[in-house]
Design goal:
- Helix content is 0%, strand content 28%.
- The chain is mainly β.
- The strands form 4 sheets. Strands 1-7-8 form a 3-stranded antiparallel β-sheet, with no helix packed on it.
- A hairpin with an 8-residue loop joins strand 7 (65-68) and strand 8 (77-80).
- The protein starts with a strand and ends in an 8-residue tail after the last strand.
Length: 104
């Protein structure tokens, strides 16, 4: 789950799960298969949103944060959203590596 939060910490939407978007995502030749991390390894996902209302192009207020629930976990973590994104939130697969596009 990756719901965006308003300034009061309230969930205001739900992220759409997609394999890739305009910022990138799962690289060609990589699949979103379950992977296990060993000590010292990293995993990442690309999160992206539009800086305007997707429905009509009007201005909107940026998300204040994200509520992140890591894969196979039951606890959530609030993260700051240092971005102007405010609509059409997308999360791409969590993959090995630090780029969100997988590793070879």
């Amino acid at each position: 789950m990756w719901p965006p939060l308003d300034s009061g910490g309230n969930q205001i939407a739900q992220a759409t799960r997609t394999t890739k978007g305009y910022l990138g995502g799962l690289a060609a030749g990589h699949s979103a298969e379950q992977a296990f991390l060993s000590k010292g390894e990293s995993a990442a996902a690309i999160v992206e949103a539009l800086a305007f209302n997707a429905s009509d192009g009007s201005a909107c207020t940026a998300y204040a944060g994200l509520l992140v629930t890591p894969p196979n976990e039951t606890h959530s973590i609030k993260l700051a959203w240092d971005n102007d994104g405010c609509s059409d939130l997308q999360i791409h697969p969590v993959v090995l590596g630090t780029t969100g596009q997988g590793t070879s």
